[in-house]
Structure formats: structure tokens, C-alpha cells
Amino acid sequence: MSPEFKVTPWEVSGEVDYDVLVERFGTNRIDEALRERMASYGAEHTLLKRNVFYSHRDMNWLLDLYDKGKPFFLYTGRGPSGDTHLGHLMPWIFAKHLQDVFGATIYFQLTDDEKYLFRSDLELEDTRSMAYQNALDFLALGFDPERTRIILDTENIHRLYPLALKVSKRVTFSTAKAVFGFDNSNNIGSIFYTSIQAAPCFIESEMKGENIPCLIPCGIDQDPHFRVARDVAPVLGYYKPALIHNKMFPGLEGGDKMSSSSPETTIYTTDSPKAVKRKVGKAFTGGRVSAEEQRAEGGNPEVCAVFKYKFFLFEEDDAKLDELVSRCRSGDILCGECKADLSAKIIDFLTEHQRRRGEAEAFIGDVTLDGFDW
Ligand code: TRP
After folding, report:
1. Residue to substitute in 106, 122, 197 for testing ligand 1 pocket (most ligand atoms within 8 angstroms of CB)
2. Given pLDDT bands bounded at 50, 70 and 90, which one contains residue 156?
3. Looking at the predicted structure, is the pLDDT value of residue 192 above 90?
4. Cα torsion at 306, 312, 313, 316 (round to 10°)?
5. What's the CA-to-centroid distance between 175 and ligand 1, angstroms?
6. What CATH topology corresponds to 263-357?
7. Homologous superfamily of 5-247 in CATH?
8. This prediction's pTM
9. How many angstroms is it from 11 CA to the middle of ligand 1?
10. How do the domains of the chain map onto residue ranges?
11. Is the C-beta atom of 115 inside 6 A of ligand 1?
């Protein structure tokens, strides 16, 4: 077992051991009982069934309150540092499912401030225009406009600031250093930033004037922010936000996390069919060096990026996925065929997504918090 991996909100490196991560972060694994409980409110989502959403904090507490007639709101977000890729969509797809099942309002925070502070190559104008593009991708997934509010940090700061202040007063520099690994070279904005990401956990309570529970679906890399938020919540008189965490969406090169910094192994929501075919065509697979060898010895789906894509998002039918595994292992299907199938599925998905993304431009103004103008 290798502990040689790193997961922070700003960096994921090495081969992530998700079991070890649960222990490191002190979260809880989603067990069979919780999976069944969640499925009982609506159809079981593939991402839950396949353990992609695999860790949580306080889900049972949240559902107990819900059962007693106390609804919760959802909160998730995106740091706008570039175009949206398939990995970003994954937690949002699950968030949309949660909105449908629980009828919950969702707040979507676009942290143009965060990416400006943490990325030396980006100006505020850049992160703001990327935020607009990212918001279109979010809305394209079909969130209910009546129950969706988009927060752009630099625009809606008057809503966030009083909450962020309250949080920041209770978080010491030494906590920030211990949780995020800051040192004396970090700019002072980045040290304060976690209180801005904490603020939406309490926004619905603040706006409604009563305590309302919050559920955050997010990548497990974001958990450190909310660990801090959860520590201060009771001191401020709010509920601790509950969380449900997903594993990272893999890159086409076979790595653990699809990364915007390597465009050829990343599929963006705006990619053309040609680009999708080219990128999938070059993906890392579990195939052998020659077709003959693969026919004889079979491939290895466990390490294969093409298989991972099907597992995460592009093959919802369990029976078909199982069949693929056995056909791959027995050498019955070769990588070319499997890649062509994945490309076709991604292209179908993106064609529809791009259409809806265009439609979102017409109503994005209606779902921004306090009706700000992009
Ligand atoms: N920090 C996140 C990112 O870089 C953006 C974010 C803000 C977020 N609030 C969130 C993500 C809540 C998940 C949940 O992408």
C-alpha cells in the first residue's frame, strides 16, 4: 500500500488510494445500508451504485431530518479556471439527480476569486468569463430554474461577506496551515479564501431567517474546506453541512484525475466530434501490443481509461458493462472497437449537451443570485 499520493483542493497527484483517503480525511464510507436508504427515495443512481460517490459526512442525520419533514438545500460549485470537461459534469449530474429526488433548491458557487488568487496566469476578467461558460454547462444538465441560484463570488460578495467574516474570525492561521498546507509564501487572499467557500453552506439559513440543513455533493478533494466549515458551524449557530463525495474522474492518459492542463487527454463539453474521436483514439487502454497477442491473452479493463469512462458515465447498463469486461478479458473485443463505441456515446451526449448549453444562454440571467448581469 503506497501512501505516496496527495489530494488537496488545489492539487491531486500520485495514485489515489480512496480507502486511505477516507481515513486521512476522517469521512465515512457509504455502506450498503446508506446506499439502500438513498435508493428508497428514488431510483438508485448509477454513480452511487458503482461507488463513484463513495464517502460522506452526516448523510443519515440529514435524511433523518428530511424524514421528519425538514427539507435541505444543495450546494456545489466550480472554480472557473478553464473550459468545463466531463469530469466536472459528474458531480453536477449527481446533484441534478438529488434535486429531482428531494425537490431541493441548489446554489452553485462560481469562485472566480479563488482561481484568480491561486493561479498566477489568470486575471479576474479571465476567471469571470470562464465562470459564465461553466455556468452554461451546469444549467445544460437540466436543473429546475425555479430552484437554482448561481453565485458569482465577485458579484454576490455582499451576500457572502458577512458569513465569510463570521467564519474567518473562528479559523486561525495555524488551522489554515495545517489543513491546506499553506506557508509564508502564500498570498494572504488565498489564506482567507476558505471562508468564502464556507459561506454558501449557511446562505439559505441566512436568507430565510431559519436554520436549514445543507448537503454538498462534491469531489472528495474539496472536503478540507468543509471540514473547516463544519468545525465553525455550531459556534455560529448553524447546522454543520452534510457532504457526499465522489472519486476523481479519470484522464484519458490513464491517470486518476482528468486535468485541464493536458487538453489532449481531456474531453471538453465544447469539443467537436472530430476532437472526441482523436482524443479517445489516443487514450491509454489495457490492451496488448498487437491484435494477435490481445486475441490470445485478452486485455485488462482495470487499468483502461476507455473502460473507466464507460464505468463512470457512458455505460449505465450493468449487464452490458459486465459483458464488456468478459469480452475484453477473453480477447473477444479489441481496443479499436471499444474506443469507437465510446466515441459514439460521448459524441451523442455532447451533441445534446451543446444544444442545451445554447438554450441556457436565454435564461441564465433569471437564475443568477440577486439577478446580476454577466
Ligand atoms: N473550489 C472548487 C473548485 O475549485 C469550487 C467550489 C466552490 C466548490 N464551492 C464549492 C466545489 C462547493 C464543490 C462544492 O472547483
Report:
1. 197
2. very high
3. yes
4. 100
5. 20
6. Tyrosyl-Transfer RNA Synthetase (1.10.240)
7. HUPs (3.40.50.620)
8. 0.96
9. 13
10. 5-247, 263-357
11. no
